[in-house]
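ingest -> validate -> predict -> emit
validate: passed (alphabet ok, no gaps, 276 aa)
predict: started
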Amino acid sequence: MNPYKPRVKAPDPFLISKTQSILKNNRLTTVCEEASCPNRAECYFHKTATFMILGEICTRACHFCAVQTGKGQEIERDEPTRLTRAINELGLNYVVLTSVDRDDLKDYGAGHFKACVSKIKEKCPNVEIELLTPDFKADTTALDIIISTGVKKLAHNEETVRRLSKEVRPQSSYDRSLNTLEYYSKYSKSIVKSSLMLGLGETDKEIIETMRDLLNVGVSELTLGQYLQPSAKHAGVKRYCSQDLFDDLKREALNMGFKAVASGPLVRSSYHAANL
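emit:
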């Protein structure tokens, strides 16, 4: 058995059960639950959660992701109201909103992001908000809608190194992701953040090159985590990275100039989002 394969303590069953009940009653999806994130109980304890809006079906088919692919679902106009009700019932202090890709929509879903943010600001004024967005095909009209929300952080995940990007994300683009992040950095006052998965076959040198690319387009916060294969149909794990490597990469990233870095086998893109 690989000694570096990440392990986590079983989550608090009461906390998970209570949270799941509130989510079910409000017909909401969290990435925490959808992906069975190993850190979800820790995040719930610290009053943070990551909600997935715009349905559960993605119009793209990335080889690392377990979300169902197909035709996008009809937008539920009452979702912002249900979202704010759940936020209050859960007593959250910090919320991350993310979504599937919605290439079927004229604005790629940016308007619905804004509607959700507006309702949260109205009903939960003390809650801080982070948006983890798709690339919106780097459409500046959509990106301007996102920027106009004025949230604390704007994030978009580069996911992997340039050489592997087309293989891992065939309908996305390494450079388009950089362009999206650069636009956020140039035209918003929000903190800009991105994330990389390790273990897909990249070299340590390529990771450092990618970190430098992210820093050069204005990304100031970075998370690094171990890729775990969702099923036999998905991209395989090429290596389990040691904690020592994650620690080395964190030091390298901070020395480069990143303001905050979370790095470890169980780190995910929204891990300790409020504390970075």
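The chain has a mean pLDDT of 89.
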